[in-house]
Amino acid sequence: MGLDFLLTALVVVLVPGTGVVYTVATGLARGRVPGIVAAFGCTLGILPALIAATFGLAALLHASALAFQVLKYAGAAYLFYLAWQTFREAGPMAFHRQAAPASLVAVARTGFLINVLNPKLSLFFLAFLPQFIVPGEGAVSLQILAMGSVFMGLTLVVFIGYGVFAAALGARVLRSRQVMTWMSRTVALAFAGFGARLALADR
Protein backbone atom coordinates (compact mmCIF):
# COMPACT_ATOMS: atom_id res chain seq x y z
CA MET A 1 0.00 0.00 0.00
CA GLY A 2 1.78 3.08 -1.23
CA LEU A 3 1.42 6.83 -1.11
CA ASP A 4 -0.28 6.82 -4.50
CA PHE A 5 -3.16 4.78 -3.08
CA LEU A 6 -3.50 7.00 -0.01
CA LEU A 7 -3.60 10.21 -2.05
CA THR A 8 -6.03 8.78 -4.60
CA ALA A 9 -8.30 7.40 -1.88
CA LEU A 10 -8.26 10.74 -0.06
CA VAL A 11 -9.30 12.58 -3.22
CA VAL A 12 -12.13 10.10 -3.79
CA VAL A 13 -13.36 10.50 -0.21
CA LEU A 14 -13.24 14.30 -0.38
CA VAL A 15 -15.38 14.48 -3.53
CA PRO A 16 -18.98 15.27 -2.54
CA GLY A 17 -21.40 12.37 -3.01
CA THR A 18 -24.52 11.12 -1.31
CA GLY A 19 -22.67 10.32 1.93
CA VAL A 20 -21.05 13.74 2.10
CA VAL A 21 -24.33 15.52 1.39
CA TYR A 22 -26.12 13.45 4.02
CA THR A 23 -23.43 14.03 6.68
CA VAL A 24 -23.25 17.76 5.99
CA ALA A 25 -27.04 18.09 5.95
CA THR A 26 -27.34 16.21 9.24
CA GLY A 27 -24.66 18.35 10.85
CA LEU A 28 -26.34 21.52 9.63
CA ALA A 29 -29.81 20.46 10.70
CA ARG A 30 -29.15 18.50 13.88
CA GLY A 31 -25.78 19.54 15.29
CA ARG A 32 -22.36 18.05 15.96
CA VAL A 33 -23.21 14.70 17.57
CA PRO A 34 -25.77 13.66 14.92
CA GLY A 35 -23.31 14.81 12.24
CA ILE A 36 -20.63 12.53 13.69
CA VAL A 37 -23.12 9.66 13.97
CA ALA A 38 -24.07 10.19 10.32
CA ALA A 39 -20.39 9.88 9.42
CA PHE A 40 -20.20 6.56 11.31
CA GLY A 41 -23.33 5.29 9.59
CA CYS A 42 -22.06 6.16 6.11
CA THR A 43 -18.69 4.57 6.86
CA LEU A 44 -20.27 1.40 8.18
CA GLY A 45 -22.35 1.24 5.02
CA ILE A 46 -19.12 0.77 3.03
CA LEU A 47 -18.38 -2.53 4.79
CA PRO A 48 -20.74 -4.75 2.73
CA ALA A 49 -19.24 -3.38 -0.49
CA LEU A 50 -15.74 -4.04 0.81
CA ILE A 51 -16.63 -7.61 1.79
CA ALA A 52 -18.20 -8.13 -1.64
CA ALA A 53 -15.06 -6.87 -3.37
CA THR A 54 -12.80 -8.98 -1.14
CA PHE A 55 -14.60 -12.24 -1.81
CA GLY A 56 -15.52 -11.60 -5.44
CA LEU A 57 -19.23 -11.03 -4.83
CA ALA A 58 -19.02 -7.66 -6.55
CA ALA A 59 -18.04 -9.47 -9.75
CA LEU A 60 -21.19 -11.56 -9.46
CA LEU A 61 -23.25 -8.40 -8.99
CA HIS A 62 -21.63 -6.92 -12.07
CA ALA A 63 -22.34 -10.10 -14.05
CA SER A 64 -25.97 -10.35 -12.94
CA ALA A 65 -28.03 -7.70 -14.68
CA LEU A 66 -31.10 -8.53 -12.57
CA ALA A 67 -29.30 -8.21 -9.23
CA PHE A 68 -27.75 -4.93 -10.29
CA GLN A 69 -31.07 -3.50 -11.48
CA VAL A 70 -32.92 -4.53 -8.31
CA LEU A 71 -30.32 -2.97 -6.02
CA LYS A 72 -30.00 0.09 -8.24
CA TYR A 73 -33.72 0.87 -8.20
CA ALA A 74 -33.97 0.15 -4.47
CA GLY A 75 -31.16 2.64 -3.86
CA ALA A 76 -32.72 5.24 -6.16
CA ALA A 77 -36.11 4.83 -4.46
CA TYR A 78 -34.49 5.34 -1.06
CA LEU A 79 -32.78 8.53 -2.23
CA PHE A 80 -36.09 9.84 -3.60
CA TYR A 81 -37.66 8.98 -0.24
CA LEU A 82 -34.95 10.98 1.56
CA ALA A 83 -35.52 13.87 -0.83
CA TRP A 84 -39.25 13.83 -0.06
CA GLN A 85 -38.61 13.63 3.68
CA THR A 86 -36.21 16.55 3.54
CA PHE A 87 -38.61 18.58 1.41
CA ARG A 88 -41.34 17.96 3.99
CA GLU A 89 -38.87 18.84 6.78
CA ALA A 90 -39.29 15.43 8.41
CA GLY A 91 -36.87 12.66 9.35
CA PRO A 92 -33.22 12.94 10.38
CA MET A 93 -32.51 15.91 8.10
CA ALA A 94 -35.37 18.17 9.12
CA PHE A 95 -33.90 21.67 9.09
CA HIS A 96 -36.62 23.20 11.23
CA ARG A 97 -34.98 23.63 14.62
CA GLN A 98 -38.30 22.92 16.34
CA ALA A 99 -38.81 19.63 14.53
CA ALA A 100 -38.92 16.48 16.62
CA PRO A 101 -35.34 15.25 17.15
CA ALA A 102 -34.37 12.14 15.21
CA SER A 103 -32.80 9.34 17.23
CA LEU A 104 -29.12 8.71 16.71
CA VAL A 105 -29.96 5.16 15.66
CA ALA A 106 -32.17 6.53 12.87
CA VAL A 107 -29.42 8.92 11.80
CA ALA A 108 -26.85 6.11 11.62
CA ARG A 109 -29.29 3.75 9.90
CA THR A 110 -30.03 6.27 7.17
CA GLY A 111 -26.32 6.78 6.45
CA PHE A 112 -25.78 3.03 6.42
CA LEU A 113 -28.62 2.40 3.97
CA ILE A 114 -27.47 5.17 1.63
CA ASN A 115 -24.27 3.23 0.93
CA VAL A 116 -25.61 -0.32 1.25
CA LEU A 117 -28.27 0.34 -1.40
CA ASN A 118 -25.76 1.79 -3.86
CA PRO A 119 -24.54 -0.98 -6.22
CA LYS A 120 -22.04 1.43 -7.77
CA LEU A 121 -20.02 1.31 -4.55
CA SER A 122 -19.28 -2.41 -4.87
CA LEU A 123 -18.38 -1.98 -8.53
CA PHE A 124 -16.16 0.98 -7.60
CA PHE A 125 -14.17 -1.16 -5.20
CA LEU A 126 -13.97 -3.91 -7.82
CA ALA A 127 -12.44 -1.47 -10.32
CA PHE A 128 -10.48 0.78 -7.97
CA LEU A 129 -8.68 -1.40 -5.43
CA PRO A 130 -7.10 -3.97 -7.80
CA GLN A 131 -5.12 -1.14 -9.45
CA PHE A 132 -3.00 -0.87 -6.30
CA ILE A 133 -2.36 -4.56 -5.64
CA VAL A 134 1.35 -5.34 -5.36
CA PRO A 135 2.31 -8.79 -6.70
CA GLY A 136 4.15 -10.93 -4.19
CA GLU A 137 3.06 -8.88 -1.17
CA GLY A 138 0.48 -11.31 0.14
CA ALA A 139 -2.85 -12.70 -0.90
CA VAL A 140 -4.89 -10.46 -3.17
CA SER A 141 -7.94 -10.71 -0.91
CA LEU A 142 -5.92 -9.58 2.11
CA GLN A 143 -4.49 -6.63 0.21
CA ILE A 144 -7.96 -5.60 -0.92
CA LEU A 145 -9.25 -5.93 2.64
CA ALA A 146 -6.36 -3.85 3.99
CA MET A 147 -6.79 -1.10 1.41
CA GLY A 148 -10.54 -1.10 1.91
CA SER A 149 -10.07 -0.74 5.66
CA VAL A 150 -7.79 2.25 5.13
CA PHE A 151 -10.37 3.71 2.74
CA MET A 152 -13.03 3.33 5.42
CA GLY A 153 -10.75 4.99 7.98
CA LEU A 154 -10.17 7.95 5.67
CA THR A 155 -13.90 8.16 5.03
CA LEU A 156 -14.68 8.26 8.72
CA VAL A 157 -12.12 10.98 9.50
CA VAL A 158 -13.10 13.17 6.53
CA PHE A 159 -16.82 12.73 7.08
CA ILE A 160 -16.52 13.57 10.77
CA GLY A 161 -14.70 16.73 9.71
CA TYR A 162 -17.53 17.57 7.33
CA GLY A 163 -20.14 16.89 10.01
CA VAL A 164 -18.44 18.94 12.73
CA PHE A 165 -17.82 21.86 10.37
CA ALA A 166 -21.42 21.76 9.14
CA ALA A 167 -22.71 21.75 12.73
CA ALA A 168 -20.63 24.81 13.59
CA LEU A 169 -21.87 26.55 10.45
CA GLY A 170 -25.47 25.54 11.10
CA ALA A 171 -25.41 27.08 14.58
CA ARG A 172 -24.57 30.42 12.96
CA VAL A 173 -26.54 30.24 9.74
CA LEU A 174 -29.76 28.35 10.44
CA ARG A 175 -31.40 31.01 12.52
CA SER A 176 -34.12 32.28 10.21
CA ARG A 177 -37.04 30.31 8.81
CA GLN A 178 -36.21 31.53 5.32
CA VAL A 179 -32.65 30.19 5.43
CA MET A 180 -33.81 26.84 6.85
CA THR A 181 -36.39 26.49 4.10
CA TRP A 182 -33.82 27.31 1.42
CA MET A 183 -31.35 24.77 2.82
CA SER A 184 -34.05 22.11 3.06
CA ARG A 185 -35.07 22.58 -0.57
CA THR A 186 -31.45 22.53 -1.73
CA VAL A 187 -30.64 19.27 0.06
CA ALA A 188 -33.89 17.69 -1.14
CA LEU A 189 -33.01 18.64 -4.71
CA ALA A 190 -29.51 17.18 -4.29
CA PHE A 191 -30.88 13.82 -3.11
CA ALA A 192 -33.43 13.77 -5.92
CA GLY A 193 -30.61 14.39 -8.37
CA PHE A 194 -28.51 11.57 -6.89
CA GLY A 195 -31.54 9.29 -7.07
CA ALA A 196 -32.19 10.12 -10.73
CA ARG A 197 -28.53 9.58 -11.62
CA LEU A 198 -28.49 6.21 -9.91
CA ALA A 199 -31.75 5.14 -11.57
CA LEU A 200 -30.32 5.98 -14.98
CA ALA A 201 -26.93 4.33 -14.33
CA ASP A 202 -26.04 1.41 -16.55
CA ARG A 203 -23.07 -0.10 -14.62
UniProtKB/TrEMBL annotation:
UniProt-listed Pfam families: LysE
Membrane topology note: Multi-pass membrane protein
Keyword Protein biosynthesis in record: no
TM helices/strands, residue ranges: 6-25, 37-60, 66-84, 104-129, 149-170, 182-200
Main localization of the protein described in the UniProt heading: membrane
Domain of life: Bacteria
UniProt cross-references to InterPro entries, sorted A to Z: LeuE-type
GO cellular component, one term: plasma membrane
Location in or out of the cell: Cell membrane
GO MF annotation: an example: homoserine transmembrane transporter activity
Keyword tags: Cell membrane, Membrane, Transmembrane, Transmembrane helix
Protein family according to the UniProt entry: Belongs to the Rht family.
Protein name per UniProt: Threonine/homoserine/homoserine lactone efflux protein
Lineage: Bacteria, Pseudomonadati, Pseudomonadota, Alphaproteobacteria, Hyphomicrobiales
